[in-house]
Amino acid sequence: MTAPATPAADGALRPLVEARGVTRVYRQGEIDVHALRGVDLDVSDGEFTALVGPSGSGKSTLLNVIGALDAPTSGAVTVGGHRLTGLSRTAAAHFRLDHVGFVFQAYNLLPVFTAYENAEYTLVLQGVPRAERRERVLPLLERVGLTDMMDRRPHELSGGQQQRVAVVRAIASNPQLVLADEPTANLDSETSRNLLDLMLELNREAGTTFVFASHDEHLMERVRRVVHLKDGRIDHDERRDGM
Amino acid sequence: MWRLAWRNLWRSRTRTLITGSAIALSLALQLISYGAADAMYRQMVSSAARTAGGHVLVHAKGYWERQTSDLVIPDAQPLLETIRQVPGVRVALPRVIVNGLISSSRDNAGVRLTGVDPEQERAVQDLSRYVTEGTFLGPEDPRPLVLGKRAAKDLGLKLGDRVVLTATDADGEMVRALFHLTGVLDTGSNALDSAAAWTTLDAARAAIGLDSGLTQIGVIADSDSARGAVRDRIREALGPRASDLELLTWDEAMPELVGFIEIDSSMNELFGFVIFLIVVFGIANTFLMAVMERIRELGLLAAIGLDPLRIAGLVLRETLLLALLAITVGLGLGYAGHSYLSIVGIDLAAFSQTDLEVSGVILEDMVIRSHLDPARWAIACVVVFALVLLSALYPAWRATRVDPVVAMRTYA
Predict the structure, then answer these.
(1) Residue A113 with chain B: CB contacts under 8 Å
(2) How many A/B residue pairs have CB atoms within 8 Å?
(3) Residues in CB range of A158: below 8 A, 6 or more apart
(4) CB of B302 within 8 Å of any CB in chain A?
(5) DSSP letter (8 states) at residue A13
(6) Confidence of residue A78 (pLDDT cuts 50, 70, 90)
(7) Architecture of the A17-234 domain
(8) ipTM value of the model?
(9) In 10 A of CB A126, how many CB atoms?
(10) Residue B308 to chain A, least CA–CA distance (Å)
(11) What are A80-83's contacts with CB under 8 Å, separation 24+?
(12) B136 — pLDDT class (breaks 50, 70, 90)
């Protein structure tokens, strides 16, 4: 189970993710690119949420800011009670290691490690003992149907298999939050559906919060909330109760 | 992290093997050159002690600087006996040394005449093996003289010819003494062959009117490295008489050879260091390439939570493993080279028509083998290790600067 939402001083539950007035400006040559223009966003524990929008809308940037991969130019971001603004690179790395799991578009596995070694790597970095790592990772690999593949290296796995390893790596450390940026972009339809079903099951069973940045229609069929971004702002926020 | 570092090392097997080979071969060549140089220095030191007259030289105070016949050790026999009893002394040799002029019917020449006991002197060096004509101080003549071949030739002398020595005696008076040429040497040293002469101890004493005195007592110690300690023990054993004497080790008497060895050794070190520095620049470039090729992967590692210090640590671990592997191979190759040279050696005679002479010291054995100095080899390995790690500092720093978002987006 993920950690519950952080109680506020008055006892009310606070959202897992709180973003207030977040802007992000990039310098591209001589031009300033305003990727985010004052975004306010709350994400609660256990959500299965997608950020959608056309290219350049800022969805990936918002995802990166929430995950402490990128720092906002202005505004405040809090995740699980941890204030992310003003973090050093080392502190941001430690935050990501301890609190966030990532699933990227390209599978981003370490080519010299086996599937098992890739899946357990965040636990290795956290200093979890070997026996405990096996206890946590093996059931997850079995869950995603990769027990027979765990000694294979990434180049010996299909795209879908690699992405499943990436999902196991992302959740093996029981993070508060899993951020997935276009996780199905390089997969065929059936593989995409299977992968998304897996993540939905993990969300329902373990309460892991998932936030996606994606165009995938298969994902839209499964999420309970869709945040529409346009030109760096939240255009509208669509909740789908009952899904 | 070590597992990741080790496997990363072998991602490009060819590059790792080439880089490792460069380190290993550079180290091996340097160690082999150390072995050959150290062996040559040891031979020089050994020869130097013989050329100087012993590991420790005992004279009247001021003799080594002035080299005059009036500076003698009077009543030397008790001193000789005392010195022979000192621990660490293998042999103590009596000598009378006269600097003078020898004359033939044709010409004159300045010489340094050394009066020795030929049997005892054989403990230091056996000059009889350099004899090309006659004998080395045989018993047949009471006033024998042995000259170098160059001096004999310049003076137009043949065996049996009379030779007159003109010198100052122990009282500073001019004296003349008659000798017969009984032997000619070819030592290969220009200094010895043109300006050195030998006679018996008794004949030398008679020439300058010296009764029981000596010019020099040459001490051969059990080992060269103990020469300082032996000198100190001799001084202590001689008691009050030591205050009238000077006791020099051979390196104090021949500082020019010591200087040569130090300079040559330093040049060798410098040369090796420069070679390594060149190798290091090449390695640094290779490491940097290896980092730049993995920008995306480093970005991923940063994204999943590897902080900058640990990323740098990953690069340095890869370097450390490569360094350890290469140094081990280099040591093995160096040792193999040393072992080969220890047995076969390098014959310098193949490169030179004459014997090798350095600062007046002849290398009697022209075959240079190898000597392993563990401390020197260990220092070389440590220096190589440090230089290789140094070469990885910039690539490691560069790896820490990777922005994970940019890396994963740009380097797909």
Answers:
(1) 4, 7
(2) 56
(3) A191
(4) yes
(5) B
(6) very high
(7) 3-Layer(aba) Sandwich (3.40)
(8) 0.87
(9) 14
(10) 6
(11) A80/A3, A80/A6, A80/A16, A80/A176, A80/A177, A81/A6, A81/A14
(12) confident
